[in-house]
């Protein structure tokens, strides 16, 4: 840096901007706030702003019925967990307190431990001859309308075949599975949900309910109000009706959990009616030595079991069925169903 430049810089330090340019800064232009923009490190920190605490989101619960009236479903039958696997005998005890599986205050029906009976109905279902069943179902209402009104005019053969082809497994994946518990209460709601998108739904039955398919078919028509247009072994096609309206479907409250099965009388007795204990033991030993009529698999199809047992009784007074691998509750139910079907 040369001497001339040093002298010039030294002179500039002693002159302000007003002296240099012979101009005085007005007062209204001069800043009034002279606080430094950068705060020193030794200054006190500003008080922290308290943030508003947001409560966590709580999804609405189906158990919260505050300020709501209980449902009054207009259905003619008693609400049960299973409509095909519930024994006809009344229970002799309960394994838990009789809490309603629909939730507290959800419906205006009292839970008795195995069902929620209708207030004005004495008979829950009609199980008579096949000729009288279809006419007896037309007496009840489903969603405020009679079953005959919902079904409308009968389908022609071409329309039935078109619906059957539409519900085949290779054409659609829409299906309702009916398992070892039979026709449950929540399954009725599943059938109505399928009817929103298709006029017919395919139902596949497996396990113990296939022993008595006649009862399964009747309960499906009785509880849903539909009509079976196809039945082959364990495959059923259920039609909703011409005048079915999804917005006018009946209100079906859902069960939130599976209630414990009450204590029923023994399905398999220690002695056969009319025989002594010694005679019953001798008969059982003779039955164990007879060759098995058939072997049942878990969750199989037992549609022809009743006919096979009836044919076996023509030649022998005993028939043995191999149930190895099945749960105890399953072969007990099968024995009770065979006893009822054989008497009928």
Count of DSSP strands = 6
Helix/strand order, N-terminal first:
HHHEEHHEHEHEEHHH
- Cα-based radius of gyration, to the nearest Å: 39 Å
Fraction of residues in helix: 25-40%
Arithmetic mean pLDDT:
81
Runs with pLDDT <50, length 5+?
12-18, 121-132
Put simply, the count of helices is 10
- Beta-strand percent range: 5-15%
Using the alpha-carbon principal axes, give the shape: extended
Main structural class: alpha+beta
What is the topology, as strand order, of the major beta sheet?
3-4-6-5
Distance between the termini: 124 Å
Largest sheet geometry:
4 strands, mixed
Report on this model:
The chain has 344 residues and is an alpha+beta fold. It is built from 10 helices and 6 strands; from the N terminus they run αααββααβαβαββααα. It has a 4-stranded mixed beta sheet, with helices on both faces. A two-stranded antiparallel ribbon has the order 1-2. β3, α6 and β4 form a beta-alpha-beta unit. The protein is extended.
